[in-house]
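Hi R.,

Here's the chain you asked about this morning:
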Amino acid sequence: MTLPQAERMMFEAIASICIETGGETICRYALLPGFAADTEAGCLAALHEGEVELSGQTGPPSCVRRRASRLLFTEIAPGVFAHRGAIEEPGPGNLGDVSNIGFVIGENAIAVIDAGGSRAVGEEVYLAIRERSDLPILAVILTHMHPDHVFGAGPLAESGAEVIGRAGLSRALAERSGNYSEGFTGLIGPEGFLGTRVVSPDREVKAEEMLDLGNRTLHLVARPTAHTATDLTVADLASGVVFAGDLVFAEHAPALDGSLKGWQATLAAIREEPAALLVPGHGGPTLPWPEGGAALSAYLAALEEDTRNAIEAGVPLSTAAATIGRGEAANWSLFDLYNARNATVAYTELEWE
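And the predicted structure, written out as tokens:
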């Protein structure tokens, strides 16, 4: 009889990684996916045959008994799991676990949707998957370029997963990786961010693609510029669950890094598409659809109306940014961290129509 994953004694490889910062050595143990075995000897044998090379690694890796993941995943439909990220800014207490993450288990393989904001979070995603299945992780699908969704991809890629994103994601990550890494190191702290790297997609989706997990198909759709210029949605055709990434926000204030008009058009299109449940990029982690998109639609409409009124009245951007969208403040957490920038992006776009 095969024991459930959570009850089997398994061993995973770990390695110490360190950096020097401010005259101090900071270290942590990093999980090394891809060497799991039922016994410590089997894990060590896999390490002997395989290659391990992590930045900052000190000494040879070792094998320890697999522990439980620190992330809570809920089975929102048969074989479909979702994790709700914290509704807060990245910091030492959450290690960048501030966005929603999902995975889907087919008969032959598993696909992960988004990966969190640090290697440490990605390691926890891997462990959460392994509590439920030892099937190969076929793909990690990145819904867009923002660091809180992509920085955890490293361990999943090391486990053998193909990294998939929308066309243009590789270029966007290359252009922003330095700023993203510097920013998240400052927010999370050097220890929490240790070992984190940007993983460029192995494959980019230009229009639509189907991903077969074994009697289970995911529909990947590259969206026009909206929340960002790299937005991708993932629909599990078996359950009707749609992973929308940051094309849909709940509770957490929306962040505009693309096109206001494009976002409104894309959101309207998604509202017309069938979905039993929708997983937003933040909040939820599930929303009824299409009614679950009403709050975001209202915010974007207010952003557009206030911006057009300010432009028509000749109010300069420096003044308008402080007032555009303010009527929506009570409806969103972290509103003051994001709204002024949203107003700036919207004003710049609509001013030159």
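The mean pLDDT is 96.

Let me know if you need anything else.
M.
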